[in-house]
Amino acid sequence: MAQAWKCAGLRWAADGPVLAWVGGRRSALVRGQRVAFAVAEGGVRTCVGARGNACPVRAEVPGRGTGARCEECARLRRAHSVAADTMADDPQPYRVYLAWFGPGLVKVGITAHARGAARLLEQGAVCFSWLGRGPLMAARRTEELLRAALGVPDRIAYAHKRAVRAWLPPREAERAAGIAGLHARAVALGGWPQSLTPEPFRAVDHAGVFGIAGAERGPAAVAEVAELVAGLAIGGELVAAAGPDLHLATERGVVVLDTRLMAGWELVSAGGEPCTVPLRDLGRAAGVQDGLF
Questions:
Q1: Each residue of 215-234: pLDDT tens digit?
Q2: How many CB atoms are closer than 10 A to CB 174?
Q3: Bridge partners of 246?
Q4: Which parts of the chain sit beneath pLDDT 70?
Q5: Is 56 helix (H, G, I), strand (E, B) or coil?
Q6: Whole-structure pTM over 0.70, yes or no?
Q7: What's the burial of 169, exposed, middle or buried (CB within 10 Å: 0-12/13-18/19+)?
Q8: Which of 6, 28, 31, 110 has the fewest beta carbons closer than 10 A?
Protein backbone atom coordinates (compact mmCIF):
# COMPACT_ATOMS: atom_id res chain seq x y z
CA MET A 1 0.00 0.00 0.00
CA ALA A 2 1.33 3.46 -0.90
CA GLN A 3 2.30 5.62 2.03
CA ALA A 4 -0.19 8.39 2.77
CA TRP A 5 0.88 11.94 3.58
CA LYS A 6 -1.10 14.76 5.15
CA CYS A 7 -0.34 18.25 3.88
CA ALA A 8 0.25 21.04 6.40
CA GLY A 9 0.22 23.78 3.79
CA LEU A 10 2.45 25.72 1.43
CA ARG A 11 5.25 27.79 2.97
CA TRP A 12 7.42 30.39 1.29
CA ALA A 13 11.09 30.06 2.23
CA ALA A 14 13.92 32.34 1.15
CA ASP A 15 14.68 30.09 -1.82
CA GLY A 16 11.11 29.45 -2.91
CA PRO A 17 7.90 27.55 -2.10
CA VAL A 18 7.87 24.46 0.10
CA LEU A 19 5.07 22.01 0.85
CA ALA A 20 4.98 21.11 4.53
CA TRP A 21 3.63 17.75 5.72
CA VAL A 22 2.24 16.73 9.10
CA GLY A 23 5.14 15.19 10.98
CA GLY A 24 7.69 17.80 9.92
CA ARG A 25 8.79 16.65 6.45
CA ARG A 26 9.05 19.28 3.71
CA SER A 27 9.08 19.09 -0.08
CA ALA A 28 10.83 21.90 -1.93
CA LEU A 29 9.01 22.93 -5.10
CA VAL A 30 11.07 23.80 -8.18
CA ARG A 31 9.67 24.93 -11.50
CA GLY A 32 9.96 22.17 -14.07
CA GLN A 33 9.47 19.29 -11.63
CA ARG A 34 6.47 16.98 -11.77
CA VAL A 35 3.99 17.35 -8.92
CA ALA A 36 1.48 14.49 -8.75
CA PHE A 37 -0.71 12.99 -6.06
CA ALA A 38 -4.05 11.31 -5.50
CA VAL A 39 -6.47 11.44 -2.59
CA ALA A 40 -6.50 8.09 -0.78
CA GLU A 41 -9.35 5.79 -1.74
CA GLY A 42 -12.23 5.95 0.73
CA GLY A 43 -10.71 8.92 2.52
CA VAL A 44 -12.55 11.82 4.12
CA ARG A 45 -11.31 15.33 4.70
CA THR A 46 -10.99 16.11 8.39
CA CYS A 47 -10.50 19.36 10.30
CA VAL A 48 -6.86 20.39 10.74
CA GLY A 49 -7.45 21.89 14.20
CA ALA A 50 -6.21 25.24 15.48
CA ARG A 51 -3.24 26.77 17.28
CA GLY A 52 -1.22 23.59 17.08
CA ASN A 53 -3.97 21.42 18.56
CA ALA A 54 -5.81 18.66 16.73
CA CYS A 55 -9.55 18.94 16.28
CA PRO A 56 -11.01 17.13 19.34
CA VAL A 57 -13.76 15.48 17.28
CA ARG A 58 -11.87 15.07 13.97
CA ALA A 59 -14.80 16.77 12.30
CA GLU A 60 -15.36 16.16 8.59
CA VAL A 61 -15.03 19.33 6.49
CA PRO A 62 -16.21 20.12 2.92
CA GLY A 63 -13.87 19.41 0.02
CA ARG A 64 -14.37 22.86 -1.54
CA GLY A 65 -13.42 24.88 1.55
CA THR A 66 -9.96 26.45 1.72
CA GLY A 67 -9.99 26.83 5.51
CA ALA A 68 -10.07 23.07 6.27
CA ARG A 69 -11.45 23.78 9.75
CA CYS A 70 -14.73 23.05 11.48
CA GLU A 71 -16.66 25.99 12.94
CA GLU A 72 -15.28 25.55 16.46
CA CYS A 73 -11.63 25.33 15.39
CA ALA A 74 -12.04 28.25 12.99
CA ARG A 75 -13.50 30.32 15.82
CA LEU A 76 -10.61 29.37 18.12
CA ARG A 77 -8.04 30.30 15.48
CA ARG A 78 -9.62 33.67 14.76
CA ALA A 79 -9.97 34.45 18.48
CA HIS A 80 -6.17 34.62 18.70
CA SER A 81 -5.28 36.57 15.58
CA VAL A 82 -4.05 40.01 14.60
CA ALA A 83 -6.79 40.22 11.97
CA ALA A 84 -9.45 39.97 14.66
CA ASP A 85 -7.80 42.68 16.80
CA THR A 86 -7.49 40.27 19.73
CA MET A 87 -3.74 40.88 20.16
CA ALA A 88 -3.66 44.62 20.81
CA ASP A 89 -0.89 44.20 23.40
CA ASP A 90 1.51 42.51 20.97
CA PRO A 91 4.82 44.34 21.63
CA GLN A 92 6.58 43.54 18.35
CA PRO A 93 6.75 46.19 15.59
CA TYR A 94 4.50 45.94 12.53
CA ARG A 95 4.66 47.30 9.00
CA VAL A 96 1.92 48.66 6.76
CA TYR A 97 2.15 47.78 3.07
CA LEU A 98 0.49 48.37 -0.29
CA ALA A 99 0.25 45.23 -2.43
CA TRP A 100 -0.54 45.01 -6.16
CA PHE A 101 -1.89 41.77 -7.66
CA GLY A 102 -2.67 42.94 -11.18
CA PRO A 103 -4.45 45.74 -13.04
CA GLY A 104 -6.97 47.34 -10.68
CA LEU A 105 -6.20 45.05 -7.76
CA VAL A 106 -4.47 46.84 -4.87
CA LYS A 107 -4.85 46.27 -1.14
CA VAL A 108 -3.48 47.65 2.10
CA GLY A 109 -2.39 45.37 4.92
CA ILE A 110 -0.13 44.90 7.92
CA THR A 111 2.40 42.26 8.87
CA ALA A 112 4.85 41.70 11.70
CA HIS A 113 8.20 43.34 10.96
CA ALA A 114 10.04 40.11 11.79
CA ARG A 115 8.25 38.25 8.98
CA GLY A 116 9.73 40.44 6.27
CA ALA A 117 8.08 39.85 2.88
CA ALA A 118 6.79 36.35 3.76
CA ARG A 119 3.21 37.58 4.15
CA LEU A 120 3.31 39.18 0.71
CA LEU A 121 4.61 35.99 -0.91
CA GLU A 122 1.90 33.97 0.85
CA GLN A 123 -0.79 36.29 -0.51
CA GLY A 124 0.56 36.17 -4.05
CA ALA A 125 1.41 39.89 -4.21
CA VAL A 126 3.00 40.53 -7.60
CA CYS A 127 4.45 43.85 -6.45
CA PHE A 128 4.45 45.69 -3.12
CA SER A 129 5.94 48.57 -1.17
CA TRP A 130 6.16 49.28 2.54
CA LEU A 131 4.25 52.32 3.80
CA GLY A 132 5.26 52.62 7.43
CA ARG A 133 6.54 50.92 10.57
CA GLY A 134 5.37 51.12 14.18
CA PRO A 135 3.33 49.49 16.99
CA LEU A 136 0.50 47.14 16.08
CA MET A 137 -2.40 49.46 16.83
CA ALA A 138 -0.74 52.39 15.04
CA ALA A 139 -0.31 50.17 12.00
CA ARG A 140 -3.95 49.08 12.28
CA ARG A 141 -5.16 52.71 12.48
CA THR A 142 -3.12 53.60 9.41
CA GLU A 143 -4.65 50.67 7.54
CA GLU A 144 -8.12 51.92 8.47
CA LEU A 145 -7.17 55.47 7.42
CA LEU A 146 -6.24 54.32 3.93
CA ARG A 147 -9.39 52.27 3.60
CA ALA A 148 -11.57 55.23 4.55
CA ALA A 149 -9.71 58.07 2.81
CA LEU A 150 -8.51 56.35 -0.36
CA GLY A 151 -10.98 53.48 -0.70
CA VAL A 152 -8.23 50.83 -0.65
CA PRO A 153 -9.56 47.42 0.48
CA ASP A 154 -7.76 45.26 3.04
CA ARG A 155 -8.51 42.01 1.25
CA ILE A 156 -8.92 40.67 -2.28
CA ALA A 157 -10.39 37.29 -3.15
CA TYR A 158 -7.93 34.75 -4.55
CA ALA A 159 -10.28 34.15 -7.49
CA HIS A 160 -9.72 37.75 -8.60
CA LYS A 161 -5.94 37.43 -8.23
CA ARG A 162 -5.90 34.32 -10.42
CA ALA A 163 -8.08 35.94 -13.07
CA VAL A 164 -5.59 38.73 -13.79
CA ARG A 165 -2.30 36.80 -13.74
CA ALA A 166 -2.46 36.16 -17.47
CA TRP A 167 -2.74 39.89 -18.18
CA LEU A 168 0.11 41.40 -16.16
CA PRO A 169 2.14 44.23 -17.71
CA PRO A 170 5.39 42.77 -19.10
CA ARG A 171 7.77 45.30 -17.53
CA GLU A 172 8.62 45.60 -13.86
CA ALA A 173 8.36 49.40 -14.01
CA GLU A 174 4.81 49.13 -15.33
CA ARG A 175 3.85 46.84 -12.47
CA ALA A 176 5.43 49.20 -9.92
CA ALA A 177 3.42 52.08 -11.39
CA GLY A 178 0.30 50.29 -10.13
CA ILE A 179 1.09 51.40 -6.58
CA ALA A 180 3.53 54.32 -6.94
CA GLY A 181 0.87 57.02 -7.17
CA LEU A 182 -1.21 55.50 -4.41
CA HIS A 183 1.81 55.36 -2.12
CA ALA A 184 2.41 59.09 -2.66
CA ARG A 185 -1.25 59.88 -1.90
CA ALA A 186 -1.16 57.71 1.23
CA VAL A 187 1.97 59.37 2.64
CA ALA A 188 0.48 62.81 1.96
CA LEU A 189 -2.65 62.09 4.00
CA GLY A 190 -3.15 63.82 7.32
CA GLY A 191 -4.06 61.82 10.41
CA TRP A 192 -1.22 59.29 10.50
CA PRO A 193 -0.50 58.08 14.06
CA GLN A 194 2.62 59.80 15.39
CA SER A 195 4.11 56.49 16.47
CA LEU A 196 4.11 55.17 12.88
CA THR A 197 7.20 56.05 10.84
CA PRO A 198 6.50 56.47 7.10
CA GLU A 199 8.73 54.53 4.70
CA PRO A 200 9.78 55.70 1.22
CA PHE A 201 8.41 54.08 -1.90
CA ARG A 202 10.47 51.09 -2.99
CA ALA A 203 8.72 48.57 -5.19
CA VAL A 204 9.56 44.90 -4.65
CA ASP A 205 8.54 42.71 -7.59
CA HIS A 206 7.69 39.01 -7.16
CA ALA A 207 6.66 38.19 -10.73
CA GLY A 208 9.98 36.50 -11.48
CA VAL A 209 9.95 34.63 -8.17
CA PHE A 210 6.47 33.31 -8.95
CA GLY A 211 7.31 32.49 -12.58
CA ILE A 212 4.40 34.50 -13.98
CA ALA A 213 6.33 37.10 -16.00
CA GLY A 214 9.45 37.37 -18.13
CA ALA A 215 11.13 34.95 -20.49
CA GLU A 216 10.42 31.91 -18.29
CA ARG A 217 6.69 32.59 -18.13
CA GLY A 218 4.66 29.58 -19.20
CA PRO A 219 1.21 29.39 -20.82
CA ALA A 220 -1.75 30.94 -19.04
CA ALA A 221 -3.92 28.78 -16.80
CA VAL A 222 -7.16 27.53 -18.32
CA ALA A 223 -8.80 26.03 -15.25
CA GLU A 224 -8.59 25.71 -11.47
CA VAL A 225 -9.17 22.74 -9.19
CA ALA A 226 -12.67 23.02 -7.73
CA GLU A 227 -12.07 20.43 -5.00
CA LEU A 228 -10.21 17.24 -4.21
CA VAL A 229 -12.16 14.00 -4.10
CA ALA A 230 -11.26 10.61 -2.60
CA GLY A 231 -9.73 8.34 -5.22
CA LEU A 232 -9.06 11.09 -7.79
CA ALA A 233 -5.67 12.45 -8.87
CA ILE A 234 -3.90 15.49 -10.28
CA GLY A 235 -0.41 15.72 -11.71
CA GLY A 236 1.62 17.96 -13.95
CA GLU A 237 4.77 19.97 -14.45
CA LEU A 238 5.10 22.93 -12.07
CA VAL A 239 5.28 26.03 -14.27
CA ALA A 240 4.56 28.70 -11.66
CA ALA A 241 3.71 29.21 -7.98
CA ALA A 242 2.09 32.32 -6.51
CA GLY A 243 0.76 32.62 -2.98
CA PRO A 244 -0.92 29.29 -2.16
CA ASP A 245 -1.41 28.45 -5.86
CA LEU A 246 0.55 25.95 -7.93
CA HIS A 247 0.25 26.22 -11.72
CA LEU A 248 0.54 22.71 -13.16
CA ALA A 249 0.86 21.86 -16.85
CA THR A 250 -1.43 18.84 -17.24
CA GLU A 251 -2.81 16.98 -20.24
CA ARG A 252 -5.87 19.22 -19.80
CA GLY A 253 -3.84 22.44 -20.01
CA VAL A 254 -2.35 24.54 -17.20
CA VAL A 255 -4.42 24.04 -14.06
CA VAL A 256 -4.22 26.13 -10.87
CA LEU A 257 -4.22 24.13 -7.65
CA ASP A 258 -4.91 26.09 -4.47
CA THR A 259 -2.83 24.09 -1.99
CA ARG A 260 -5.21 25.04 0.82
CA LEU A 261 -7.57 22.46 -0.70
CA MET A 262 -5.00 19.76 0.17
CA ALA A 263 -5.16 20.28 3.93
CA GLY A 264 -7.11 17.62 5.81
CA TRP A 265 -6.77 14.91 3.14
CA GLU A 266 -4.62 11.77 3.16
CA LEU A 267 -2.60 11.94 -0.08
CA VAL A 268 -0.59 9.31 -1.95
CA SER A 269 1.84 9.45 -4.86
CA ALA A 270 0.03 9.37 -8.22
CA GLY A 271 2.88 8.67 -10.64
CA GLY A 272 1.68 9.15 -14.21
CA GLU A 273 -2.06 9.06 -13.56
CA PRO A 274 -4.17 11.55 -15.56
CA CYS A 275 -5.78 14.62 -14.01
CA THR A 276 -9.21 13.46 -12.81
CA VAL A 277 -10.13 15.97 -10.08
CA PRO A 278 -13.07 18.34 -10.77
CA LEU A 279 -11.97 21.52 -12.55
CA ARG A 280 -13.57 24.92 -12.95
CA ASP A 281 -12.94 26.83 -16.19
CA LEU A 282 -11.07 30.11 -15.74
CA GLY A 283 -12.13 31.34 -19.15
CA ARG A 284 -10.08 34.18 -20.64
CA ALA A 285 -10.02 36.06 -17.36
CA ALA A 286 -8.74 33.79 -15.38
CA GLY A 287 9.35 2.69 -2.05
CA VAL A 288 10.28 3.68 1.63
CA GLN A 289 9.03 6.95 0.38
CA ASP A 290 11.30 9.94 1.07
CA GLY A 291 8.49 12.26 0.07
CA LEU A 292 5.16 12.34 -1.68
CA PHE A 293 6.93 13.52 -4.85
A1: 667 788 999 999 999 999 99
A2: 12
A3: 241, 257
A4: 1, 80-89, 215-216, 283-293
A5: coil
A6: yes
A7: middle
A8: 28
